[in-house]
Write a structure and sequence with these properties.
Length: 401
């Protein structure tokens, strides 16, 4: 994973590690990020001799706030540093308003073979409310640019449960999304994250069910409306050939996100860039590493990268802000939290093989209770969320944790 922490403008709901930046800062970041990738790869290849990268994902922020040439340079650095599989999935996140056909053609020829476009809504008033920098027509144009540039694998992001949004509004966005024929659709419910303008607007009156914004008051959909939106999403996308393979993700046959599927199945991954996280299998167990979230510190420390690269362990890299060895209990929790998000669920035999029969027997009473409540189902040794379990997934995860 390669993090690009820049955006054209901060959206009202966003708490991601991203912000607008001037050209000089972006150029300095690209240089520092290239150095980090080289250092990370040297260490990763020393740890795993037969390492092969099966997916690369440029996320943000808005990666396409960088110039196409800068993104192509960074992908070349990844390719130079790591052995990539012949069929490596290489995804680029992008937003309408930051792309054009010429730049996308350059990116496609540079090796990006999948694009994830953050449309979020096909209703102009919702885009304006979110603080997006484009309208619906410009979003449609961006989609056309992607196809014309040769991106045969395209994903769209949508957000549900927006302020003032009805089930009918959301269904309209879904139908519009289907009309532009993407290969993959991710649908996420709006969450009021602390520190965002939306959260501040809700907290101003002490009522987190309503947003009090300068142009009016917007009620937030209640839980039952949110569930109705998710059911409508599954119905509409299912009618048009999309398979729901994860709670929030739908794909046409053969178009599942390989990169995100790796997260959900617990595969090791390396994150490069400001605030990026890694999950690495080291000699003393799985480590979760996080890069510093301070941009000035990141740029300063990577200026000394040549010396830092001589260190023997990734924890010695000064830009690593956190290093946590996952306990067995934490690994067990993640097994269910991540695995049950997938519609195919988890194999109980995998849990027992990894953590021992005693661990599975200790978990069995909780699992049986959730089955009895109609939240889980078990077939041929595989546990899955039921339809009701999907609606109450957070409750299920808390029980299992």
């Amino acid at each position: 994973y390669v993090h690009i922490p820049f955006c054209a403008a901060k959206c009202a709901y966003c708490d991601f590690l991203s912000a607008p930046a001037d050209e000089e800062t972006r150029a300095a970041y690209v240089k520092a990020l290239a150095r980090e990738i080289a250092c990370d790869a040297r260490e990763d290849l020393a740890q795993t001799q037969d390492l092969c990268v099966v997916s690369v994902y440029f996320g943000g922020g808005t990666p396409t706030c960088l110039a196409p040439e800068q993104l192509a340079f960074l992908l070349d650095e990844v390719r130079r540093a790591y052995p990539l599989a012949d069929d490596c999935e290489i995804t680029l996140e992008a937003n309408p308003g930051t792309v054009n056909e010429k730049g996308l053609r350059l990116l496609r020829s540079a090796g990006f073979n999948r694009i994830s476009l953050g449309v979020q809504s096909f209703i102009d008033r919702e885009l304006k409310l979110l603080g997006r920098i484009y309208n619906v027509q410009e979003a449609r144009e961006a989609i056309c640019f992607c196809r014309a540039a040769g991106f045969e694998n395209m994903s769209l992001d949508l957000i549900s449960a927006l302020p003032g949004q009805t089930v009918e509004d959301f269904a309209l966005s879904l139908r519009e999304a289907v009309l532009v024929a993407p290969d993959h659709i991710s649908v996420y419910s709006l969450i009021l994250e602390d520190g965002t303008p939306f959260a501040a607007a809700a907290a101003a009156e002490g009522d987190r069910t309503v947003l009090h914004l300068p142009d009016g008051t917007y009620p937030l959909p209640d839980e039952e409306t949110e569930r109705a939106m998710y059911r409508e999403c599954a119905r509409i996308l299912g009618m048009h050939g999309f398979e729901r393979y994860e709670i929030s993700n739908y794909a046409r046959p053969g178009r599942r996100s390989r990169h995100n599927s790796g997260y959900w199945t617990g595969r090791p991954y390396r994150g490069a860039g400001l605030g990026a996280a890694s999950l690495l299998e080291l000699a003393d167990g799985p480590h979760r590493l996080s890069v510093t979230r301070d941009l000035k510190e990141y740029l300063r420390l990577l200026g000394e990268a040549d010396e830092a690269c001589a260190e023997e362990a990734p924890t010695a890299f000064p830009w690593i802000g956190e290093d946590e060895v996952l306990t067995e209990g934490e690994q067990q929790e993640e097994f269910f939290f991540l695995g049950l998000r997938r519609m195919e669920g988890v194999l109980t035999a995998d849990y027992a093989a990894r953590f021992g029969d005693d661990a599975w027997e200790a978990k069995r009473p909780v699992v049986d209770r959730l089955i009895g409540q109609g939240l889980l189902e078990e077939t041929d040794g595989r546990l899955k969320l039921t339809e009701r379990g999907i609606d109450l997934a957070n409750q299920v995860f808390l029980e299992l944790m």
